[in-house]
Amino acid sequence: MLKSLKHNEEGTTAIEFSLLFIPYFFMMLGVFELSIMYASASLLEGATNAAARLIRTGQLQESVEDPDVVFRNRLCQYAVALIPCDDVTIEAIPLDSFAAYDDMEPEYDEDGNLVSQGFDAGGSSSRVLVRVAYRYHMLTPLIGNLLAGPGGSRLFVSTIVLQSEPYDFAGADS
């Protein structure tokens, strides 16, 4: 009877599969988490670019509504899929020159979140620094701790420095 059990190989595939399933499952979970994380970062970048176009063309500055609200609404139109708009921090700061960007370091609180320095879209032909930040919280706690650190989240910051168009032309009133 012992000889028949010693040479019996039924179930070896099931045992091998069960041993390899756990690392394979965690690897696939990590790939899925990374995919969503990078898609969120790309979506934030595209949404920031689309919303900054309102500043670049002067539409935001000439709007009768609150510029911060108009900018946030445009941002949220593009980032609706993966980014909750209430978790986004926005700032726009006029610059004296493009070289002044070097002096405009972002400010962070003790938790590592961006602290907004206000929202001023500037005027015609203004140089403006636009920063949008979003803290992405990992969906899976174990993978999140491996990829993002102890808090299980990662801060994405999208920065655009632009010059608005000269939208106040001389003689436009006539």
Overall form? elongated
Report the β-strand fraction as a percent range: 15-25%
Instruction: Give the total of beta strands.
Output: 5
Strand arrangement, major sheet: 1-4-5
Q: What summary fits the major beta sheet?
A: 3 strands, antiparallel
- The number of helical segments is 4
Order of helices and strands: HHHEEEEHE
Structural class category: alpha+beta
> Approximately how much helix is present in the residues?
40-55%
Identify low-pLDDT runs. Answer: none
Residue-averaged pLDDT, rounded?
87
The gist of it:
The chain is α+β, with helices and mostly antiparallel strands and 174 residues long.
How are the secondary structure elements laid out?
Layout: H1 2-6, H2 12-57, H3 67-78, E1 88-95, E2 107-108, E3 114-115, E4 127-137, H4 141-148, E5 153-163
Antiparallel strand pairs: 1-4, 2-3, 4-5
Helix pairs in contact: 2-3
Report what the structure shows.
It is a single chain. The protein is of the alpha+beta class and 174 residues long. It is built from four helices and five strands; from the N terminus they run αααββββαβ. It has a three-stranded antiparallel beta sheet. It has a two-stranded antiparallel sheet with strand order 2-3. The longest helix has 46 residues, at 12-57. The chain is elongated and about 95 Å long.
